[in-house]
Design goal:
Neutral Protease, domain 2; Elastase, domain 1; 12% strand; 4-stranded antiparallel beta sheet; binds zinc ion
Length: 460
């Protein structure tokens, strides 16, 4: 499996940068090494070795950090063993700390010690090559370059790069997603999903407050970039003369068909990335507690094949959500709605309006003036409308309070159900459409007040 952190198109862009020979050399040599490694890795194992089932207790070393000393020899010499103090070598110590974070996420939250699940020691090699612009999983260990010092900083610097690469190892030993086309984009996406969860967990962030950026800090100052990828807004991570513009897509409407980058695995991964972020934000709380468990179950549960496409994986996540959270059907509803929002699952209930995505720049309830509610659907198919002015109406302050408590930016519509009502709540020009079962208690009260005020039912 080929799992390099920096997409080949970005390295190719650097290699062709005529103005800076050093930088072009860094991009070119990284591409050449990557091509050699791809050939070596073709026969990497998909399943854990059968004889290693007793390794958990007999081998106390969880992780060992090694250095290649700027050569391309793997695994290199031991730089920091498990449990030993900081070395003063920044890359070694960063790798030590970030590998602890991702190890702990998998061991504690997903009951998976090590990538192969048997407690095997994780080997991480840093200081790989010269000006090496990448990090990768080579089929049995993790490898990190120091960057070129002009565009890319050390690949050990953002902790989520480590988690991204480690997750490629987990995928290899579980679903074994073929690194090509849609299964390849899922392979990439799953790595970003666990990378973001590792970062959020280390920083103590919930899904709503997380930045959902991947590789934040990987670019040196002077590069116009937030990160390498954005999960909530694919295509917005960078825009710089040396890098070009982030080409990731976040919706099936923009799906890229190409033969480059294994069929655009780093481009189309934005679609399942965004589905996970939307689902986690809608489900709320800590991303690894519910939505993350759903994705982990779909990846490792044996239900998806190596060549699964987006729709097949989406169906597996909805199935996992239903199975894992039988008493909380909202989880499966949010997961399904997220895949609908990125266009992977079609909105399939006839006559029910497609759920709208809450825009990020929602009109805050304190500022908006016009509040309108429309109720459609239902067995009789009647439409009911109500509208009032929040500044003039005596119930304005009460409604504003309810709307603020409802926190509209975090709401996301779940799956539509036959014959249930669908509500559209509009604040000035902004609006949100939710099926009845997804209304929060505050929104229930809001729509009750506004529709009661309206009185009659419009059967048109
Ligand atoms: Zn990757």
């Amino acid at each position: 499996m080929t799992c390099t952190f920096v997409p080949p198109y970005l390295l190719a862009r650097l290699a062709s940068t005529g103005a800076d020979p050093t930088l072009a050399g860094a991009g070119r040599s990284t591409l050449q090494v990557d091509a050699r490694l791809r050939d070596q890795r073709a026969g990497a194992p998909r399943q854990p070795p059968a004889a290693r089932t007793t390794a958990v207790s007999s081998d106390p070393a969880e992780r060992v950090i090694r250095t290649a000393d700027h050569t391309e020899q793997l695994p290199g010499t031991v730089a920091r063993a498990d449990g030993s103090p900081p070395t003063g070598d920044v890359a070694v110590d960063e790798a030590y700390d970030s590998s602890a974070q991702v190890w702990d996420l998998f061991a504690t939250e997903f009951n998976r010690p090590s990538a192969d699940g048997t407690g095997s020691t994780l080997t991480v090699t840093v200081h790989y090559g010269q000006d090496y612009d990448n990090a990768f999983w080579d089929g049995s260990q993790l490898v990190f370059g120091d960057g070129d010092g002009q565009v890319f900083d050390r690949f050990t610097k953002p902790m989520d790069v480590m988690a991204h690469e480690f997750a490629h190892g987990v995928t290899q030993y579980t679903a074994g997603l073929t690194y090509e086309g849609q299964s390849g984009a899922l392979n990439e996406s799953v790595s970003d999903v666990f990378a973001s969860m590792t970062k959020q967990r280390a920083l103590g962030q919930d899904a709503v407050s997380a930045d959902w950026l991947i590789g934040e800090g990987i670019f040196l100052p002077g590069i116009n970039a937030k990160a390498l990828r954005s999960m909530t807004e694919p295509g917005t991570a960078y825009d710089d003369p040396r890098l070009g513009r982030d080409p990731q897509v976040g919706s099936m409407a923009d799906y890229v068909t190409t033969t480059e980058d294994n069929g655009g695995v780093h481009l189309n991964s934005g679609i399942p990335n965004r589905a996970f972020a939307l689902a986690a934000i809608a489900v709320g709380g800590l991303s690894w507690e519910r939505t993350g468990k759903v994705w982990y179950d779909a990846l490792t549960g044996g239900e998806v094949g190596a060549d699964v496409d987006f729709a097949g994986f989406a169906a597996a996540t909805v199935g996992s959500a239903t199975r894992l959270f039988p008493d909380d059907s909202a989880v499966a509803g949010h997961v399904r709605a997220a895949w609908q929002q990125v266009g992977v699952i079609a909105t399939d209930v006839a006559g029910t309006p497609a759920p709208t995505t809450p825009p990020v720049d929602v009109a805050p309830a304190e500022q908006a003036r016009r509040l309108a509610v429309r109720r459609t659907g239902g067995f009789a198919g009647a439409t009911r409308r109500g509208e009032l002015d929040l500044d003039d109406d005596p119930r304005g302050p009460q409604l504003r309070q309810l709307l603020q408590r409802a926190d509209l930016t975090t709401l996301s519509p779940g799956a539509a159900s036959p014959d249930r009502f669908v509500y559209t709540v509009a604040l000035d020009a902004w609006q949100l459409t939710l099926p009845e079962q997804d209304l929060t208690p505050e929104l229930h009260e809001v729509v009750r007040i506004v529709l009661d005020d309206a009185g009659g039912v419009d059967l048109g």
